[in-house]
Here is the input.
Amino acid sequence: MLHKMRQDQESPARVLFLDHTAKIGGGEIALLNLVRHLDTRFTQPIVLLFAEGQLAERLRLYADTYVLPLENSVATAPKDRLGWRSLLQLKAVWLVLRQIWRVARFARRLRVDIIHTHSLKSDVIGGLAARLAGIPVIWHVRDRIETDYLPVSVVRVFRFLSRIVPNFVIADSGAVLSTLRPNTVINHSAEAPTKLKKSRSCVVHEGCVVEDLRDPSRKSDGVARIGLIGRISPWKGQHIFIEAAALLSKHHPLAKFEIIGAPLFSERDYETSLHALCRKLKIEESIEFVGFVDDVRSRITELDIVVHASTIGEPFGQVIIEGMAEQKPIVATNGGGVPEIVVDGVTGILVPMGDAPRMSQAIDYLLRNPEIADQMGRLGRERVQAQFTIQKTARLVEGVYRRVLGYV
Here is the structure.
């Protein structure tokens, strides 16, 4: 029986948020922040994950959170290793079909009004489950659907499914939406839902919590601290950051460079190669591998410059807006959704991807011109307050819910 379209606005809409993982990553932080800041007068969030973990523990503080376990071999398969071979394995197909049925049954039992998916795997499983249950589904896409990021077969299938499965697609940047639906006119905002009646997609940038500035625990000690934040992975460009640090250390011997983040198990060899690179360049004393940090904001407070070094286009750049919110100047690679965040020469400096000398020059410029760096930090914080708060993100997403439920 098809799910009956909700017509009244008397009670909150029951929205089922779906993610395949409970590990904390950029997309999962965005999901957690969104659930925390929804207006519960309109939206009743319910969360369904495919694994137990840190994300589930945190989400239970703000919403009813359930787990329908999915076999680890399917749930943890890396995006860049997906393809027809893995998709057509009989066991994997059976596990996915079973999960689709379980999600559909769960959603019907809880009488949800919308299913809102938050990862590529949950898009497919949740999308097909929603169709089976007759419930509207929204895909929240935070990955560039492009061949430099995913296998060709996955790109083709996902683009095709995006046209027939979801009732609506939210992308976290214009760069992401342009890869999902090439050669289409992109709506970059959901602020006016009435204008979206003929559209089935829009851009809603991620937001962060903007708090009062903290004083760094270290006062002015004459040591510049430059940090790169994110998972240790080849495409995140930690090797480029190290090469830039080696160039900078010749002119700024007291500067300290922090690599904040940890690798997944499959990327431990890359982390080992980074330590070897530091030894080769003889800058072991200047580089600190901080590891995973739960309170990223505290670490950002201690930095003078926040660097982003991805070697392929970043879908959005959550750590960039977090750095700007803490009034830090940004040096970032010019690709993906990053130019939608950083105003080059105003809130930071954009450099070509994979270019250590240009990154070094940009950092050197900020270190030699502290007044300009301070001004970029102030303007960056103002930009986040105007454009990238989690409150704005939540209101825009709620506008999409109203559109999908037929309220506007």
User: Anything to note?
Assistant: The chain has two domains: 13-207+389-404, 225-387. Residues 1-5, 187-194 have pLDDT under 50 and may be disordered. The chain has 15 helices and 13 strands.
